Amino acid sequence: MTTLAVKSPSVKNAPSIPAPNFSSIPARISPLERWVVWRWKYDEKHDKWTKVPYSPITHQLFHRKPNECSTLELAKRVIDYQGKRYAGVGISAELMDGLTYLDFDNCLEAGKIRGAELEKFILSLGSYTEVSPSGMGLRVIAETPKTWSRINESRKQNERGIPKVCVVYECKGVEIWNDGKYATITGNLFRPELCEVKRSIVTGK
Known about the structure:
The protein is 13% helix and 27% strand. With 205 residues, the protein is an alpha+beta fold. It has a five-stranded antiparallel sheet, with no helix packed on it. Strands 2-1-3-11 form a four-stranded antiparallel sheet, with helices on one face. The protein has a two-stranded antiparallel sheet with strand order 5-6. A hairpin with a 2-residue loop joins strand 5 and strand 6. It starts with 34 loop residues before the first strand and ends in a 20-residue tail after the last strand.
């Protein structure tokens, strides 16, 4: 029997996404030296593209070491000069920064939030909200107490079913974290008024 080898798609076949809008990245996070760059990698096992972070300094895989992160300016220069290698920038979440990140996967339809409950929730947060690289999801960054414990929770729709929060918000996944992982940053605002990181009434109480 002859076995055919199947090669992973090349970077040339990776999803096409808008370039980061650096001018819209909020002042609360732009000065932090927590920046990384990321590139597409095809995950054969799960048949999907993933976003793998790299150090803008060493150009090696990012392992969450402080000396691997850079300023936003350096990350931007790496994107400007090596745009074919890297797709965008991201920021490493650190508990001491007092920031909480929320992701809502596949919650947009024709540029609008699909679920009324999710729209109500995001507007109640009133903090920085951007469209994800795919153009189908949203990310919120909110100011929260530095005294909070570490948060890293994920609820995603999979073969075992749909988590209740995903049903309520009519999306395929909800994640919230303040440490332990990185977030892609696009700078592509969802709404002009949600352009600054603010202390959220909902997440900050």
